[in-house]
Please model this.
Amino acid sequence: MSVNMRFGPYGGRYVPETVIGALDELTEAYERYKDDPDFLSELGVLLSHYVGRPTPLYRARRLEQAWGIDKGLWFKREDLCHTGAHKINNALGQVLLARRMGKQRIIAETGAGQHGVATATASALVGLGCRVYMGRTDMQRQRLNVIRMRMLGAEVFPVDSGSGTLKDATSEAIRDWVTNVDTTHYIIGSAVGPAPYPEIVAEFQSIIGIESRAQMLEETGALPGTVVACVGGGSNAIGIFRGFLDDPEVALVGVEAGGEGPAGRHGASLAQGRPGVLHGSYSYLLQDPDGQVAEAHSVSAGLDYPGVGPEHSHLRDIGRVRYVNATDDAALSAFLECSRMEGLIPALETSHALAHVRDAAAELRGAGPVLVCLSGRGDKDVDQAGAALGIDASA
Amino acid sequence: MPESGAERLERTFRDAGRPLFVPYVMGGYPDIDASRRHAQLLAPHADIIELGIPFSDPLADGPTIQAAGQAALDGGTRPMDVLDIAGDLRDGPPVVVMTYFNTVIAQGADEFLGTAAEKGVAGVIVPDLPVDEADDVRRAAREAGVALIALAAPTTDDDRMAAIGEQAEGFVYLVAVTGVTGGEMTMDDRLRALVARARRHIPVPLVVGFGVRTPDQASQIGEVADGVVIASEIIRRIGDAPDPGAADAAVGEFGAGIAEALRP
Model:
């Protein structure tokens, strides 16, 4: 097969036998359509006229001054995508594949709700039924996205097992798929899961990196010194990194959820996990000595995941990408600074990438311009961030 | 050379001359002692005992087994506790251990299977390790003399059935329904055709499970397959019992009923 099934030792298809046939079918469909002119043209038209691509490259001059990034701080504005985050790039691509495979029903998992909203949107667009699995904890902290999904006609299915977050929603979505695999396509939202999902998601998201590389060259005449992106499962990060993997002079930095800090709970799988299998792929994983998967923690529902995409595990091991982390508190303060100095309310996930840029400015500035994947906007986070920051709507 | 797990399992099928009853016990549910007792109470009626190691994220399991596994983990059950239970059962029918792959990875395949062999375990079932990902574990299992029991499903095509058949030892676990554990199977032409198709490709005995609840269903499966696994229904009866004594009685009674249904 010409689709990547492994990244170094990571990846694979560690799933019940029942869905192997569907993974083969998806692999074949992806191979058949990824270079198919009709498919690419349909997706291309949607990306430009419906999503709003190419998204702009924006220079954040006030933050760059405040943080001392003297060679320039650039944002790739995925927050301007329709539905408010990069997730729509993948959801549209997969929904078009699902339709070509003759599937009648779409399912998805969601953490922060951005992938759920994107999938509900794409399903509405092509007229397919959609069910989104979401942990009950996440339904509370991302209430606005729950309402959006329901308005878009999707069924939001609460998941109570485990900690009621993204891991548990993903497990439940996979169980649905095992049961309804003949009629249903499962749209995984991050670059995780059994092969071929990590490759498919990365390819649909690689448009972020392809566009921003060309835009940096056009705007600055040079490549960035460093590219920074937040990493939960890692789809926006792999999307932007893929534009620069073959440019060894460009440093790539992935920022995981540092949660409560070194002594507390966190979501830093690459920093503190060890390889194992969760949700069908072999990758770094937060787990106890017996292999029981640990509960992650992050202020941002989208980074609250104990696993990570297998390509990130490989890029970590070969040293091509450096993975660091930012705490809840650091992310919240960066969230506020970006809102007040740039007039851009970033998603809490994205705020982790911003926090790292601020806190590591001294080391980043020497390497040249810094490019951040501004993966999503923070409208969905106003309740939660407002509560944490003491900002409310009282008269 | 001592008899391998695969040989012991295959001999069990040959000697019985009737379809086998394979009850499932979740190690550590509702607690370690009770699960050992339940396995011992099932032993006189069972031909093979399937012993589950609880896992935090059991993708192939429906709500009943998920909840039992979570209860076992909440009670502090560890993989070694379950292998110890297997050791206590070594004088009874052969034990196969059901474990998710990450439990094996965490300990290392060689060590996990070596320990399982020491405890007298005849086979292991790893539901998230499909045949084409299983080379390393299969090698470790063969070295340890433990059978790696493969699964086949209604969605498994002929080529994969053949690949499973080529590697199969002990028996193959044929999943009756497209779905997770704990649903409801029906004995129909589709299932008969599935068993017949699996037989064409798989030379070892076929045990059918997923969604089997009643003696009637067990005996219908017995007409076409070599054995039947019952899992969620046993856990449900334990959970519904008002006290441990009633749970013990329910387990024994249920086991006797299924064994009776499978007698010629």
About this structure: Chain A touches chain B at residues 12-22, 161-162, 167, 171, 174-175, 178-182, 275-280, 282, 285, 287, 289-293 (CB under 8 Å). The first helix of chain A runs from residue 20 to 33. Chain A has a mean pLDDT of 96.
